[in-house]
Inverse folding.
């Protein structure tokens, strides 16, 4: 990650030109009911995972909601989010090409596993392309032959893997992860971390990970941005407290 100057956020020096495909939070400042809440000024390179940590209520999920286009009316935002040379904050949520993963693997209960995987795939794909991509994705996560299963019959770990693949099959250009491992037990958590971070690297996607668990952030092997609780100024990326995890 590199960051552009923002005196309010005490950030490090300006980076060179943005690489194509970087996810950029450009002087984003979000207020809640008129009071500054959180700010972020950051550039996430393709294949890099930047972890955002901080106390409950500091505004971590709000930053993701702003990027994804789901900010509730109580919030007001300044600054923009860019993906490569696209200003995603000018686009409707459906056109932003952002892959979202949450703590609950939200699969559609009325669709089969294959139906869930097909859900976000480009409409230009032929039936055969869809079927092949789904079979490949299921094999990739050790669930070959599970396509016709009802998602309710899957274990938590299996659901999490299907949710990841559904997101990747939608061909996102960046990933936003909000506590995606927090409901998994320790062994599954490790397995999902490895899978998610590996796929993010394979697909060269910039990713922002919100987590309370330092082990998640360390496994992500990217920069860690610590948000401090808001006082008078919005909680910002306190670079002094941030550090680059060992790779
Ligand atoms: N829809 C909403 N309308 C009004 N206020 C909201 C809304 N959603 C969240 N908030 C408030 O915005 C603030 C930031 O919430 P946010 O969920 O971003 O925090 P967080 O850092 O992700 O917290 P946690 O770690 O507990 O998930 C909180 O004070 C929260 O109560």
């Amino acid at each position: 990650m590199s960051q552009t100057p923002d005196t309010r956020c005490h950030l490090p020096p300006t980076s060179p030109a943005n690489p194509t495909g970087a996810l950029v939070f450009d002087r984003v400042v979000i207020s809640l009911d008129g009071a500054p809440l959180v700010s972020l000024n950051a550039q996430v390179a393709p294949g890099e995972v930047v972890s955002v940590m901080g106390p409950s209520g500091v505004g971590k999920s709000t930053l993701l909601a702003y990027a994804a286009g789901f900010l509730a009316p109580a919030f007001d935002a300044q600054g923009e989010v860019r993906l490569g040379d696209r200003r995603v904050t000018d686009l409707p949520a459906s056109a932003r090409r952002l892959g979202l993963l949450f703590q609950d693997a939200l699969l559609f209960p009325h669709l089969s596993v294959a139906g869930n995987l097909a859900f976000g795939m480009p409409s230009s794909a032929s039936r055969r392309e869809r079927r092949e991509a789904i079979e490949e994705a299921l094999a990739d996560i050790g669930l070959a032959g599970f396509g016709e299963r009802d998602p309710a019959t899957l274990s938590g770990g299996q659901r999490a893997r299907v949710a990841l693949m559904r997101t990747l099959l939608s061909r996102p250009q960046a990933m936003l992860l909000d506590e995606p491992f927090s409901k998994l037990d320790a062994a599954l958590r490790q397995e999902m971390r490895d899978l998610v971070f590996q796929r993010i690297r394979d697909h060269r996607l910039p990713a922002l990970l919100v987590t309370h668990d330092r082990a998640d952030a360390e496994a992500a092997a990217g920069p860690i941005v610590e948000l401090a609780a808001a006082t008078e100024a919005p909680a910002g990326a306190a670079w002094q407290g941030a550090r680059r995890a060992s790779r």
Observations:
- Residues 3-19, 238-247 have pLDDT under 50 and may be disordered.
- The first strand starts at residue 23 and ends at 32.
- Residues 7-107+155-244 form a domain with the Rossmann fold fold (CATH 3.40.50.300).
